[in-house]
Amino acid sequence: MARVVVTGPAAADVAAILDYLTANAGRLIAAKYAEAFDAAYDQLAAFPRIGPTRPALGLQARIWIVPPYFMAYDYADDTVTVLRVLHGKRDITGDLIGRR
Rounded to an integer, what distance in angstroms lies between the CA atom of residue 82 and that of residue 28? Predict the structure, then answer.
């Protein structure tokens, strides 16, 4: 099982998403997404190569979807590093996830 590291920007993304959902959709919906993000971390730990590669975002970059959000992550040396968690409608670039 791979180790999962959530970067500061990714943790801030999740916190902002959950705050937004709490304010606009309610605590139950926010709690549902909190559980979904935790389940995604567990899934990435068990199957770190599960997400498709995204070379435009970086050499080791992959993504995993928690609809409508996606997690940009790297997998190397038995460690999954979650770089960002963003809404799927965003224009995603290497700059946005801290690359280039």
Answer: 25
